[in-house]
């Protein structure tokens, strides 16, 4: 049973679609069919919002490991994380059954549901969302235990993220907003059905998902400057198969750099602006069935 | 005669395509056919680049009015503007014949050449660029005298801007990079032809251009919050005709707001991230012939 659900936008202050959805549901109300659900609507980082930046001092969505929450870290976001954890957690012994945290990306990832465990519960959730919203992508980040992640959503007993793109930081696109709203509603519809005992492992069809692999970096020269950009054949092709020998980068001298993996992979977060400083070009994933 | 040409990128520190073009031409050299041109390659705002932001304290590309340059303004960008003006200007009595300043936008403006005067020279330049690059857009911002603009490029005897999109801030897209490079080369090709006496007003065909109109704001409520977003029918349709009665905004309550202008207009800078804080939704323009 989901007794308490917390919905967050603005964990990154320049990701406007989740922020706007929260603001609109606060102002105009959520769809009436969710009236029996106990949902709190929250903006996570108001200071980052006001400054129209991802974060003021540190990435809020990396502060929620048990270590960070118990540390003496004192950046604006570390302090904020402790406060959010007190109100909605505490992580590991949470008073909140389910946390849904809404993000957007400059990558063309469409509407992506990120789950951190591929257990029965999340498998049912993923199948349900995919059934309601066939265009959705399911991304599984279960490379480490749920509680080891630093994501805000992990302060809930269960937690997932909505990640929609492509949308520039600080911009609200109607298409991205509507995908965000549709996915948020699909997740809440699942919560309703779950509470009503209507979720049956037998009836939901298996669905396609992508299991996170590794980050791939831009090629850098000895001074740490990039020597290539994402190849036009890869740009905007998130979750499309990338086969060995297909172009990945184009160097500034006009040469193609090919994918040298042993088998196909499904790139995502291709050319995501927030990973600029980290020189991350994209992440790989493996196509699986959930 | 163009004795001296200054090419700038990084006037806004998160507009990566111009920055990368300058860096690449510095490292690998410009195309050999420009060897006879005296071109300096410059990054305008290194501090903003390092921070991956548009500007540190104030928009550098609004600092170059005579009033600002002579004022005691002491923001990082005001000081930087004075220094750039000393090196390449001074504005009004410039040692630099031609300044080309490279920008990018989150709007789908394609490759746009912004000229600030529609005199014979700029008309020839526009026609030449359009002939070389039929997909280019020509935007004429001649609503006030050349020297009254605060743009960096106005420190040159002549100055223009390249504006290419859509590209999120802090992201480098190959398509946007290549359009930027192509337009920069077309302008330099014009300079070569002009110096060689090969520009003949008779032979260059007239071209389509857009004359800047007004900024259109997002609808706001009494608290200054937006009540609507760019309509999906307008999004990404920069420089396409917007006719009276066509949808412009969709409110968060699901209603359409229609264009109430008396005649068609050609919107651009639609949903540009940098105008977020100003609540500017787009700019209008009139289609003209140059």
Per CATH, what is the topology of the largest domain in chain A? Aminopeptidase
The computed structural class of chain A is alpha/beta
Structural shape of chain A: globular
The count of helical stretches of chain A stands at 6
Unreliable stretches of chain A (pLDDT < 50, length at least 5) are none
Widest sheet, order of strands of chain A? 2-1-3-6-4-5-7-11
Question: What is the assigned CATH homologous superfamily of the largest domain in chain A?
Answer: Zn peptidases
CATH class of the largest domain in chain A: Alpha Beta
Number of structural domains of chain A: 2
**Largest sheet descriptor of chain A:** 8 strands, mixed
Query: Mean pLDDT of chain A, rounded to whole units?
Result: 96
CATH architecture of the largest domain in chain A: 3-Layer(aba) Sandwich
Output the radius of gyration of chain A: 19 Å
User: What gap, in angstroms, lies between the N and C termini of chain A?
Assistant: 22 Å
What's the short story on this structure?
Chain A has 290 residues and is of the alpha/beta class. Helix content of chain A is 25%, strand content 23%. At the A-B interface, helix 1 and helix 6 of A face helix 1 and helix 6 of B.
């Amino acid at each position: 049973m989901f007794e308490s659900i917390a919905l967050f936008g603005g964990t990154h202050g320049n990701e406007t679609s989740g922020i706007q959805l929260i603001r609109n549901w606060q102002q105009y109300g959520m769809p009436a069919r969710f009236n029996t659900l106990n949902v709190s609507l929250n903006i996570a980082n108001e200071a980052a919002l006001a400054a129209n930046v991802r974060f003021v001092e540190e990435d809020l969505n990396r502060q929620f490991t048990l270590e960070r929450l118990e540390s003496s870290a004192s950046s604006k976001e570390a302090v904020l994380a402790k406060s959010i954890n007190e109100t909605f957690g505490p992580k590991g012994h949470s008073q909140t059954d389910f946390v849904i945290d809404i993000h957007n990306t400059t990558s063309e990832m469409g509407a992506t549901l990120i789950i951190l465990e591929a257990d029965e519960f999340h498998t049912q959730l993923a199948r349900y969302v995919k059934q309601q919203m066939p265009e959705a992508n399911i991304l599984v980040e279960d490379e480490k235990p749920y509680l080891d992640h630093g994501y805000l959503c992990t302060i809930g007993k269960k937690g997932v993220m909505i990640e929609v793109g492509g949308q520039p930081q600080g911009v609200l696109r109607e298409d991205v907003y509507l995908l965000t709203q549709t996915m948020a509603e699909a997740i809440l519809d699942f919560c309703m059905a779950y509470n009503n005992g209507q979720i049956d492992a037998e009836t939901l069809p298996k669905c396609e998902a992508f299991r996170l692999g590794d980050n791939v970096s831009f090629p850098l020269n000895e001074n740490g400057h990039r020597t290539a950009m994402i190849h036009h054949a890869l740009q905007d092709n998130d979750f499309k198969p990338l086969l060995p020998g297909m172009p990945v980068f184009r160097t500034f001298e006009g040469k193609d750099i090919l994918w040298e993996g042993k088998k196909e992979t499904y790139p995502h977060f291709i050319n995501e602006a927030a990973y600029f400083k980290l020189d991350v070009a994209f992440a790989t994933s493996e196509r699986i069935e959930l």
